[in-house]
What does this fold into?
Amino acid sequence: MQNSTVTFHLTSYKSEKRQRGFNIPVEVARFLDLPNDSEVALRVERPSGQLMFHCIAKMTSGTEITAAELCRRIEYGEDLRITASRPPEAKG
It folds into this structure.
């Protein structure tokens, strides 16, 4: 099965729990067939192209990404370029 990727721009925010984070747009999650609270493969860059991180992250509260080990590198209100796809399937 072919894996699609989507690249989009957004601005990070501070969640109600004062965590840095961002939301995968619902339309993107739906296009990639990602259920709420599932894992997503991410490449996060600044608009300049500087890579901030590349990983598989767990979405919380539906499509929110707030994992501290990822988002501590993100400033509140920072513009981000995100490339998202379904994570690789486990072989076993």
